[in-house]
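Amino Acid Chain and Its Fold in Token Form
===========================================
Structure side: the spatial fold of the chain, written down as a series of whole-number tokens.
Position: the record begins directly beneath this header, with no further notes in between.
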Amino acid sequence: MVKLGSGSETAGPPRSGALHAGFLAHLPVDGASVSVVTITGNHSTVSSSDAVATKLEQLQYDLGEGPHWSALKSRKPVLVPDVRSADHAGWPMFGHAVTETEARAVFSFPLHIGAVTVGVVDLHRLSPGELSEREVTRAMTLASAIAVQAAQFATADADSDGPDDSALVAGTRRVVLQATGMVLAQLDTSATEAFARLRGHAYATGRSVDDVARDVVTRVMDFSEPASGRPANNSQDGEGTDDG
């Protein structure tokens, strides 16, 4: 049995950062991150081993595509043993972006609680290489072992009044939810469209959704103003303004 705790003798549950530890200890991988998607669609990153793992998770969150999302939707592992030779037809933007990172292989495993998929574990290697059938089974077992804890950490973080992220872990991204609500009001649109505007602007400007959201929340950016909203969705070349 893999011990998922932090080893601390203090009371309470283990730190969420310990959730990725078992994957590094028992699999031939170099990094891991653990994310949870709530019923309301909020995406929470509760554990990340290093900057590369954080970058891979951020890229997939920002782009809305990649093995992470395929594993979440299919409820099955998605294995890419060589990112440079793989067919990235299912996630072309991420396929291009991942080749510019240090990762050379990526593997995504869904987190299940009963019949419900609650999140994803993303693993990576710094050199190409497959996971054996036994290693895939082990990764699935490890994912099952942490699913409830991951969901609990995400819920606790969402209810917390403290900071929602750190240098490695993006947390519940409450700032993105807040920014989505503000853009929704600014443009009198749906939450889905408001988030699409945030994501589109982030992609067009080469920034993360988290960074754009912070600009909205701090009122550096207002999507009701054409100069701010222009690159987000309605103009493909970034020139000109939109009516209304």
